[in-house]
């Protein structure tokens, strides 16, 4: 009997609850980074890192971004070709850029472009180390596509007629069930969906959103750090919202091959095809395979293989998504990967990364937050090169950016400034000052979906996901 059938016999507690009783606490601040690095004149990246006080020190594989030792078919070019069919070498390969001292403009003055050559991402050894382990896990366990899991949702979100804050032209909204609405130790962060993942904006004909959460082990007073989960939510039949939580895991060598949680204070997520990108604040981007989700035993609150019973567990979840690769930053300008989105208006599509800065816990200035974009191969969904330099970089001119996306050169920045609960949405064109709108309180990520803007809030007791008419903000 497959575990899918076995799920029918599980109690509601095993399906819907995964944590100890609620604690009274608050969550403040955002991630910071003190990683540093350089790119040599031949394009070879090197980095050093001193850690992140808000992020677990556990990382995947080798923390040094270095070139792979095996042949992968990638090249250290932009991924383009000239008219002769030869690879085009990125001019940044031969540049030695200098990091700027900080923004020169005033708050709200608009984008201040930066030298993109300061911000390379390199193909990390995880692609070689984790891939064979993921294959072994797929041989050992039942596998399902993300579309399969969409047909096996097991929980509900609740429709909401309004959201806290000052959101214009609200079109639809939901709040999490009572458990996730109030729980302090699972904290929602990122937002993506089928609008990012597929040309037609649909997964198996359905409109879905995907929300990431990070686990605060100290607030949970739980011996295990469960790391990061994502919630797959079907919004097609609003005001009915069905969902399922999926745990993200990293493969671990062993006999048999094992897996463990991803214990970081995760940033945003971006979904393209079968690929899910997760922002790792001090490292860069982790990559997960959504074409082979593993079905595991949801009956016991542990993660990984238990030799006593010869079975795998997913922290009370039935499915886990496995990390298969990573891209590490190799920049002396210490980019922080706070939030992440996808720009489908660009050709090829581009990943958009934004930095949180408040001038206190993160950055010397509250308007020192930068935004970066990197192209992805529209066929593979991966970065095109062993070294991929940013296609653009700029200071945003806005403070406390919690969410960012871009379309046709215009940025949409969700901000938690001024201090307190109120949020704002800054729409910043490619040139000229931005326009500020009211937004949801304690905002996080932003996603564009045709004529709608999606966003969400993170404060315990006030956690909503919503879509508003885009025309009201342009």
UniProtKB/TrEMBL annotation:
Residues 17-112 are annotated as: Disordered. Residues 26-91, 101-112 have a biased composition (Low complexity). The keyword Signal applies. It comes from the Bacteria. Keywords: Signal. It comes from Nannocystis punicea. Residues 1-17 form the signal peptide. This is LVIVD repeat-containing protein. The lineage of its organism: Bacteria, Pseudomonadati, Myxococcota, Polyangia, Nannocystales.
């Amino acid at each position: 009997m497959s575990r899918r059938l076995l799920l029918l016999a599980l109690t509601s507690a095993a399906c819907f609850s995964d944590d100890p009783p609620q604690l009274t606490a608050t969550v403040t601040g955002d991630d910071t980074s003190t990683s540093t690095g350089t790119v040599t004149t031949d394009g070879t990246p090197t980095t050093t890192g001193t850690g992140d006080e808000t992020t677990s020190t556990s990382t995947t594989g080798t923390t040094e971004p270095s070139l792979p030792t095996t042949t992968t078919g990638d090249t250290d070019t932009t991924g383009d070709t000239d008219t002769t069919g030869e690879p085009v070498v990125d001019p940044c390969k031969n540049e030695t850029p200098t990091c700027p001292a900080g923004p020169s403009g005033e708050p709200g003055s608009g984008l201040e472009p930066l030298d993109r050559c300061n911000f390379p991402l390199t193909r990390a050894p995880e692609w070689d180390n984790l891939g064979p382990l993921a294959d072994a896990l797929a041989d050992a366990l039942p596998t399902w596509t993300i579309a399969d899991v969409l047909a096996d949702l097991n929980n509900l979100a609740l429709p909401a007629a309004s959201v806290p804050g000052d959101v214009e032209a609200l079109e639809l909204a939901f709040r999490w069930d009572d458990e996730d609405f109030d729980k302090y130790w699972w904290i929602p962060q990122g937002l993506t969906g089928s609008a990012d993942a597929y040309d037609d904006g649909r997964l198996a004909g359905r409109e879905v959103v995907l929300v990431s959460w990070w686990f605060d082990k100290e607030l949970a007073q739980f011996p295990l750090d469960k790391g990061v989960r994502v919630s797959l939510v079907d919004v097609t039949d609003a005001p009915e919202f069905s969902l399922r939580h999926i745990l993200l895991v990293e493969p671990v060598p062993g006999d048999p091959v094992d897996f463990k949680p991803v214990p970081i204070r995760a940033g945003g997520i971006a979904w393209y095809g079968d690929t899910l990108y997760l922002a790792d604040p001090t490292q860069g981007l982790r990559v997960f395979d959504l074409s082979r989700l593993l079905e595991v035993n949801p009956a016991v609150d542990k993660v990984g293989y238990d030799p006593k019973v010869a079975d795998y567990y997913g922290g009370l979840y039935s499915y886990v998504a496995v990390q298969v690769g990573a891209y590490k930053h190799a920049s002396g300008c210490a980019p922080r990967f706070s939030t992440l989105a996808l720009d489908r208006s660009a050709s090829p599509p581009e990943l958009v990364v934004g930095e949180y800065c408040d001038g206190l816990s993160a950055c010397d200035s509250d308007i020192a937050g930068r935004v970066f974009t990197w192209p992805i191969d529209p066929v593979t969904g991966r970065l095109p090169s062993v070294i991929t330099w940013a296609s653009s970089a700029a200071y945003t001119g806005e403070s406390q950016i919690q969410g960012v996306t871009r379309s046709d050169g215009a940025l949409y920045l969700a901000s938690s400034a001024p201090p307190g609960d109120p949020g704002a949405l800054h729409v910043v064109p490619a040139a000229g000052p931005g326009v500020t709108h009211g937004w949801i309180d304690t905002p996080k990520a932003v996603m564009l979906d045709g004529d709608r803007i999606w966003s969400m809030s993170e404060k315990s007791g006030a956690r909503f996901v919503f879509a508003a008419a885009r025309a009201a903000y342009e």
